[in-house]
Amino acid sequence: TIGPDVVEAKYFDLFSKDPLPKCDILVAADTLYNAELAKQVGHRLHEAITRSFEDGHTPIKVIVTDSQKFFGTNFLEEQEMIALNTIFEEGKWKPLEWKLETLNNFCGSGVLIDDDQIYDVDVRVIRWGWD
């Protein structure tokens, strides 16, 4: 069994026909490279949140980050996410929403960058289920 101080990460193909594995925290970090992928991330996010409510458990916690902000990648504009946010707004839950944040002294690399670099980066973030 996994204890309270242990995180078990799982790899999952977002386009698989398999259901998303059950989890306590769903993280999608820097995966919104195009509209098709972003739509699938939103679909899986919807799946995980609605399942956690249907199972009667504490709702899943969510973190989604996007540093690129490519055109067409705002999955919150998809109908299933609009419907989910409507339910949240009618109840006691905060809606899913993007917030802009600056990560100072971020250390990272990229596809075309071999070495790590330290820089400030503006990202949009969804944090949900933490309060």
Structural notes for this entry:
The protein is built from 2 helices and 4 strands, in the order βαβαββ. Strands 1-2-4-3 form a 4-stranded mixed beta sheet, covered by helices on one side. The mean pLDDT is 90. It has helices at 35-54, 79-90, and strands at 25-29, 61-66, 99-110, 113-128. The two termini are 26 Å apart. Helix content is 24%, strand content 30%. The longest helix is centred in the middle third of the chain and has 20 residues, at 35-54. With 131 residues, the chain is an alpha+beta fold. α1 (35-54) links the parallel β1 and β2 (61-66).
Considering the chains and any ligands shown, give keywords for the structure.
131 residues, alpha+beta, 2 helices, 4 strands, globular
List the helices and strands and how they pair.
Elements: E1 25-29, H1 35-54, E2 61-66, H2 79-90, E3 99-110, E4 113-128
Parallel strand pairs: 1-2
Antiparallel strand pairs: 2-4, 3-4
Give a short synopsis of this structure:
The chain has 131 residues and is an alpha+beta fold. It has two helices and four strands, in the order βαβαββ. It is 24% helix and 30% strand.
